[in-house]
């Protein structure tokens, strides 16, 4: 149990004791929220618990604070101060901070990883873009968020599996084949009308060119059906391989790639039959409808069209049924904000199948707007189409792209400043954090030259400067940040924490020398920066951002 847990338990016990003594009436206590005060003179920790509990105890907050303060005890507490309308400021004995930090130092590289949990077993499905063309910046935001969430949940101790759902069975695959076929014929001098709903990207032309470079006009004299079948397969394999390559360059990998094709026809037919047997599928105008209004949807939905072809919803029902059947306790999907209305119908279908719809959480991804020179960037300079993820990585780098995507919560619009992302200055937040790690690496190199080593038992009580104490406290907050961020599915908290930690380190660096001071102080400070480096690496690792030794 760390000091915040100890202090929280002591406050709760003090309130319970006051209730037992009849000082406070019975009631549901509010949670104890502890914060590190902005200034050292306000104590090591502070809480507004007395003000939050005033409506429960029907007493003046300062009176509540006084009653709690006089019932607090522990060999870790120096004294308590009541401030303002009822804030409780806690001053810990000096050895508490150092004893706690000693344990952090001894934990080494494992610090930041919470104890393993056996449950819940979580699956995170994200990106899942159609394999018909390159990923754009919107996909990039989802890729950064999804992979960071997986890293975060694993750091918090949860068993997690990541998955990409390959939309490779719908009409978009026919459109892909039609588009490649049209470009192929055009390049060979044939007079052809480009499909009205075809894919116009430059990548389609490149695919057709590659086919011609390899096989020439080999396919020209085939029937169109034969040619389309071949081009559908060739283009699909090429687009999927390119998609995987771009994601790998963006530090994104998946435990499982799930093909929609594997759901047709058997898995789709099975769920339709189950729903029929339950009375939740009915026929109207030749089509089969899901009675989704019985489960909270605003209208019933077609699952099998009147021509016998399944809708996208039918495949999604089969896919999510498969997820539940694989034994996951919690399913997390990251979808674009335009899929908001789709959530209810999928959950309705899951409930109709007998699954708990509350196990499915859908996080909606808001739009990304790119700005260069203060102007909105709408199109790719290279293709005239949407800016691709690959182009973004080329312009600002993978690290900056990932960090900027992760600075804001998924449900907020993101304005991405390309000029700021490329800056090599402290104005750029990812540069600011990485520079802290590079500075620490420089300290290690200097320490090695002077044969300075922190050793196994640094005297941490030598660290008394305000900048040192602030850095220690920021480091001690890290496991709680990981836990809270994981509970809220909020990797942006880790992005913010890593920035604040870098700020605490830069303040320390500008004030406290390491090489050249008295030996025991130098060892303690070197140990402090050793832990700082680890936490920077760990937090950036969750974000999928590198921690360089040189800048």
Polypeptide structure, described:
Among the domains are: 3-92, 2-Layer Sandwich (Gyrase A, domain 2), CATH 3.30.1360; 171-249, no CATH class; 429-543, Isoleucyl-tRNA Synthetase, Domain 1, CATH 1.10.730.10. The protein is α/β, with parallel strands linked by helices and 551 residues long. The protein is 49% helix and 13% strand. The protein has helices at residues 3-20, 49-52, 54-57, 61-69, 94-107, 137-155, 171-187, 202-215, 224-249, 266-277, 312-325, 342-352, 389-396, 398-406, 418-422, 429-449, 466-476, 478-487, 491-511, 519-543, and strands at residues 34-35, 45-47, 77-83, 87-92, 122-125, 160-166, 256-259, 281-284, 287-290, 301-304, 330-336, 360-365, 368-372, 375-377, 414-417. Helix 6 packs across helix 14 and helix 17 (466-476) runs antiparallel to helix 19 (491-511). The protein has a five-stranded parallel sheet, covered by helices on one side. Strands 1-2-4-3 form a four-stranded antiparallel sheet. It is built from 20 helices and 15 strands. It is globular, with a radius of gyration of 29 Å.
């Amino acid at each position: 149990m760390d000091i915040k847990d100890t202090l929280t338990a002591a406050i709760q016990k003090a309130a319970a004791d006051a209730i037992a003594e009849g000082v406070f009436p019975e009631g549901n206590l509010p949670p104890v929220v502890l914060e590190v005060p902005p200034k050292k003179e306000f104590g090591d920790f502070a809480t507004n618990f007395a003000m939050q509990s005033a409506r429960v105890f029907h007493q003046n907050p300062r009176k509540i604070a006084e009653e709690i303060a006089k019932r607090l005890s522990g060999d870790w507490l120096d004294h308590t101060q009541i401030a303002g309308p009822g804030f409780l400021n806690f001053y810990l004995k000096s050895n508490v901070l150092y004893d706690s930090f000693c344990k952090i130092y001894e934990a080494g590289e494992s610090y930041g990883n919470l104890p393993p949990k056996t449950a819940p077993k979580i699956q995170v499905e994200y990106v899942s873009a159609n394999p018909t063309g390159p990923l754009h910046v919107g996909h990039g935001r989802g890729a950064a968020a999804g992979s960071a969430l997986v890293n975060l949940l694993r750091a918090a101790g949860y068993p997690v599996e990541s998955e990409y759902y390959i939309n490779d069975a719908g009409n978009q695959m026919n459109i892909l084949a039609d588009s490649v076929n049209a470009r192929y014929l055009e390049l060979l001098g044939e007079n052809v009308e480009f499909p009205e709903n075809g894919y116009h990207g430059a990548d389609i032309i490149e695919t057709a060119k590659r086919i011609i470079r390899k096989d020439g006009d080999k396919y020209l004299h085939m029937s169109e059906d034969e040619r389309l079948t071949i081009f559908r397969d060739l283009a699909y394999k090429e687009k999927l391989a390119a998609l995987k390559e771009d994601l790998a360059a963006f530090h994104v990998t998946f435990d499982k790639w799930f093909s929609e094709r594997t759901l047709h026809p058997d898995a789709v037919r099975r769920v339709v039959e189950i729903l029929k047997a339950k009375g939740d599928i009915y026929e109207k105008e030749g089509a089969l409808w899901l009675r989704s209004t019985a489960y909270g949807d605003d209208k019933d939905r077609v699952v099998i069209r009147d021509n016998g072809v399944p809708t996208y919803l039918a495949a999604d029902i089969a896919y999510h049924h498969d997820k539940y059947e694989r034994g996951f306790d919690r399913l997390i999907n990251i979808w674009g904000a335009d899929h908001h209305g789709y959530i209810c119908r999928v959950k309705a279908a899951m409930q109709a199948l007998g699954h708990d719809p509350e196990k499915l959480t859908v996080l909606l991804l808001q739009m990304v707007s790119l700005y260069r020179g203060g102007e909105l960037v709408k199109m790719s300079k290279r293709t005239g189409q949407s800016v691709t993820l690959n182009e973004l990585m080329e312009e600002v780098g993978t690290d900056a792209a990932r960090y900027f995507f992760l600075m804001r919560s998924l449900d907020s619009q993101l304005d991405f400043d390309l000029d700021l992302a490329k800056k090599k200055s402290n104005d750029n937040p990812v540069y600011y954090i990485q520079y802290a790690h590079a500075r620490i690496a420089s300290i290690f190199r200097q320490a090695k030259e002077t044969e300075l080593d922190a050793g196994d038992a640094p005297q941490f009580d030598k660290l008394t400067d305000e900048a040192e104490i602030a850095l220690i406290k920021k480091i001690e907050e890290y496991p709680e940040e990981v836990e809270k961020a994981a509970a809220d599915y909020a990797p942006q908290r880790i992005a913010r924490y890593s920035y604040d930690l870098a700020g605490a380190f830069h303040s320390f660096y500008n004030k406290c020398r390491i090489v050249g001071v008295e030996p025991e102080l130098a060892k303690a400070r070197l140990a402090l920066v050793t832990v700082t480096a680890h936490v920077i690496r760990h937090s950036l690792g969750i974000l999928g951002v590198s921690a360089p030794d040189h800048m």
